[in-house]
Amino acid sequence: MHIKNLIYKFQMKRISLKSEYLFLGMIISLPFLDFPVFEIGFTLQLSYVFAILTLWLTLRRKEMRVFGPEFLITPLTLPLAIFLTFIFLSIFQSRFIPPGQRFLAHVNVEFFVHKPFIRSLAQFTALLFMALPFFLSVNFIKTKTMLYKVVVVWMFANSLASLYGLFGFWGSYVPNFPFANSVVMSGYGGFMVNRIKSTGMEPLIFGLSLVIPLPMAISVAVARKKNWLILLIIPQLLALLLTFSRGAWLALLIALFALSFLFIKQIIRHKLKILIGTALFCIVFEFIFLAAFKYSGLVYVFNRFLSSLEGKSDYSYLMRYETGLTALRIFKEHFILGGGIGNFWFYYNQYSPRLLGDWWIKSGMIPPTVNNIFLSFLAETGILGFAALVYFLFVLFKTVITSIRKTKDNESRIILFGVLASLAAVIVGYQLISTFYFTFIWVLFGIAIAASRISQGVAKDGLENREITNRSQKS
Questions:
Q1: What average pLDDT score do residues 425-447 get?
Q2: Exposed, middle or buried by CB within 10 Å (0-12, 13-18, 19+), for 116?
Q3: Where are the domains of the chain?
């Protein structure tokens, strides 16, 4: 019997490591939103593939009861169920409320997005799928060691994506450079500049994907004295700055501000080092920008923020302002369940205040989203969907804050502060985007619950240890 137990332990350890590697593969693929992807009628991202493979192997090896209470019951399970229920109900609104017919006359799009019901159903399916990376993160992160491993792997992946973006940024000024698609060009005040989007869909989304794990990485570096993590942060900060995304910058500032409450003593103690490091970083950034554009990068950053405050001559500001007003008009008429999740595009022409004139609509440049998560849910899912979203986020923040207050483990408190700072960055970032089915967002939600459980001693040992213990007791 003893030999059989040894053989079983070896087999379980090998099996669990395989599923763990697939889960970590999902973490590695988080920043790769737009490259590489697979087009199979819809965009299949790498993180989707790894999430599905992780679930498949977990089911095959019976490592966890995936449909049992241990896997599914979390503080967010009920809020998530309510959230998805009201989104599902909003789908049927899109079937009974016809879109503005003038939209269809001006825009030539595929059949898939021509039908409000089909588009709405696809959006709901994408959100429903996000429950998978959430529950996988909650259940695979059972120990501090695994939590630290996930953060380090995530930071490593973001560093690779950042280096790819920086490489493409420089190469975009070389004729026929093969990786120039990692940047996009935009302008302010007649001055054109390349912006890093790397493996993201656009600079803001890529920037936000970089910001999310940074506070957690800083917390891990402090808690475990892993100063080498700073080396992974440096290329990410450079790439983040060169996205020229004000939303990503603001999200980073809010995250660092939230984190500073925990490390105020360390900041005061090492203020000279921090000032010198910041100055060196600004010098490197200025050198890169001057070499590329013959123009001051710091001045450009200042002007970008100034244009946000003035708002008058900033096209991006006017576009977001107009879509926000449009969303409120849709909500006013479709108060209860909105116009259907994902269907803002169809109703834009009907409710737009035309601040930018008709040329935008006639050219087919109709914004598919509101670019604000809360206004988007008001317009597309009504007051019920909006309330469900707020309730979901409230329970999430409450769980983390309560764990910070109750935990007696200082190391767990530091990690939870990092998680809280990352969540604060998400709230800020989502003032400027609407898409709620990014895998890295739902992995963060899973990490938040897992870290809270670990801090309270709720999380058990790793999968293999739990299974071995159960088998030994039966024997």
A1: 93
A2: buried
A3: 2-474
